[in-house]
Amino acid sequence: METLNKTKYWFTADEHYGHLNIIKYCNRPFDSVEEMDYAMIERHNEVVGKDDTVIHLGDFTLKSKEKALSYISRLNGNHIFIQGSHDKWMGPEHHEIWEGNIEGVHIVGCHYAMRVWGESHYNSWHLFGHSHGRLEEIGKSLDVGVDTHDFYPYSFEGIKLIMGAKEDNINRLKE
User: Is the pLDDT of residue 134 over 60?
Assistant: First the structure.
């Protein structure tokens, strides 16, 4: 588990860079892959600084590793990638779950939504993708996919506000 000490953190999922069919599947407001990729890179770089940390929770691209690295080179920030269902470019060094602590908050990130997750009984947060905004969130869980946030990544600060308004986790221990 990581304890992050940098100044800004961002979470995102389901970019699907270079994926033509995702435009139709998710009714994305773009006429071409090039337009979609350009818009997402621009929006990412508009808010993410060069020294920020970005945690990508799967389905970054289904293209080759060379193409994935080309996209990454155009994005601001230091990147942590969690494997999704379309990330064939990733090797065995990439995991399916990320756990970390930011400002004392335990966060579990995965491409897939979970009903319970590490430390959920202590009201930890769960961030996920894959469902493109079509799955009901339970307790302190949040779909951080680009389709749910106007193709921008979510800031930790923004997530903190969202989580503050959510119900406690269903399995939270009562003190």
Answer: yes
Instruction: For residue 84, report the phi and psi dihedrals to the nearest 5 degrees.
Output: -115, -170
Both tokens assigned to 46 = 């508009």
Apex CA 75: angle with CA 71 and CA 77, to 5°? 135
Instruction: Identify the residue whose tokens are 């600060």.
Output: 157
What per-residue confidence (pLDDT) applies to 5?
Answer: 52
Section 8-19 average pLDDT: 97
In 3D, which of 153, 105, 145 has the Cα closest to residue 1?
Answer: 105
Angle at 29 between CA 28 and CA 31, to 5 degrees: 105
What's the pLDDT at 22? 97
C-alpha torsion angle, residues 3, 7, 13, 19 (rounded to 10) = -130
- Amino acid identity for residue 149 in this structure: H
The reported pTM is: 0.94
Domains annotated on the chain, with CATH: 7-164 (3.60.21.10)
Question: Of 53, 54, 68, whose CA–CA distance to 16 is shortest?
Answer: 68
**In this structure, what token pair is assigned to residue 172?**
């939270």
